[in-house]
Write a sequence for this structure.
């Protein structure tokens, strides 16, 4: 990630200079997107350091949510840059007052494709199951697509002289940024709102837990993610009354936790084991 960050920053500076000289909005929008790429990687690296801090004091889960906040920030910046780029592209299409030099734009776009291919390859080797890393990866990937669009626009300008191709390429970049940004924001908000992970079916989990011998029922089942690599579960298990007399309650706990690890890859779980008669003491039961 550090190598990708250095590579992007060096190229971004050169791209801004060429964009200002040639008047290309497509290049400037790519440079703006690359700036957000660099910021995304920098924030991702910072969030990784925070997430690695151990739990202490009131921070019972440590700083693991930092990666989710980083992914949310990356998604929001993609949407903001997309709005700015789209606004300027439409303005140029309407006024048709800007000329673009296709040659330098094509050269920079081709170099940009090469730079982003290398950066994408570097980030693809990281752990993309982390929403934080995926956010940075999506930034780089959409930037790669953007440079492809810019190169096509430059070729059109060189062969036909049709300058609006530059603004249209910018709109394509903006659309790609919206697609990636919306997905990141939605995934981040899902974690922050403690919605159950999309790949975990609550009814399937409930059914598996009910199949454990001597488990009568399951209620107050909650599943959420502290971070993208830390799904968490809590539930109340209603067990046979005799379990509290023959010492089998602890064995049931071992079985249900093994069930979750084996079938759903859930390592962090908390259970309240109770007899059926306990229901009359609970005044706010949940499904």
């Amino acid at each position: 990630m550090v190598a990708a960050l250095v590579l992007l920053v060096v190229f971004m500076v050169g791209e801004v200079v060429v964009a200002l000289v040639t008047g290309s909005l497509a290049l400037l929008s790519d440079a703006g997107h690359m700036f957000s790429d660099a910021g995304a990687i920098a924030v991702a690296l910072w969030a990784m350091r925070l997430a690695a801090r151990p739990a202490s004091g009131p921070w019972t889960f440590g700083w693991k949510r930092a990666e989710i906040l980083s992914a949310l920030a990356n998604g929001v910046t993609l949407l903001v840059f997309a709005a700015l780029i789209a606004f300027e592209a439409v303005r140029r299409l309407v006024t048709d007052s800007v000329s673009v030099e296709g040659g330098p734009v094509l050269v920079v776009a081709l170099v940009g494709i090469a730079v982003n291919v290398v950066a994408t390859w570097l980030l693809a080797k990281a752990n993309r199951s982390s929403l934080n890393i995926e956010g940075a990866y999506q930034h780089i990937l959409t930037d790669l697509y953007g440079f492809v669009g810019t190169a096509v626009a430059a070729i059109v300008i060189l062969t036909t002289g049709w300058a609006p191709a530059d603004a249209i390429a910018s709109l394509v970049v903006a659309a790609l940024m919206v697609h990636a940004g919306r997905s990141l924001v939605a995934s981040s908000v899902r974690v922050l709102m403690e919605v159950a992970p999309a790949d975990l079916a609550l009814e399937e989990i409930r059914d598996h837990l009910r199949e454990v011998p001597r488990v009568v029922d399951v209620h107050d089942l909650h599943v959420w993610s502290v971070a993208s690599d830390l799904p968490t579960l809590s539930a109340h298990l209603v067990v046979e009354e005799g379990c509290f007399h023959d010492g089998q309650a602890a064995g049931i706990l071992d079985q249900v936790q093994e069930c979750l690890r084996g079938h759903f890859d859930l390592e962090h779980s908390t259970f309240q084991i109770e007899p059926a008669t306990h229901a009359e003491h609970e005044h706010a039961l949940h499904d």
Q: What stands out?
A: The chain has a mean pLDDT of 82. The chain is about 65% helix and 10% strand. The two ends are 43 Å apart (CA to CA).
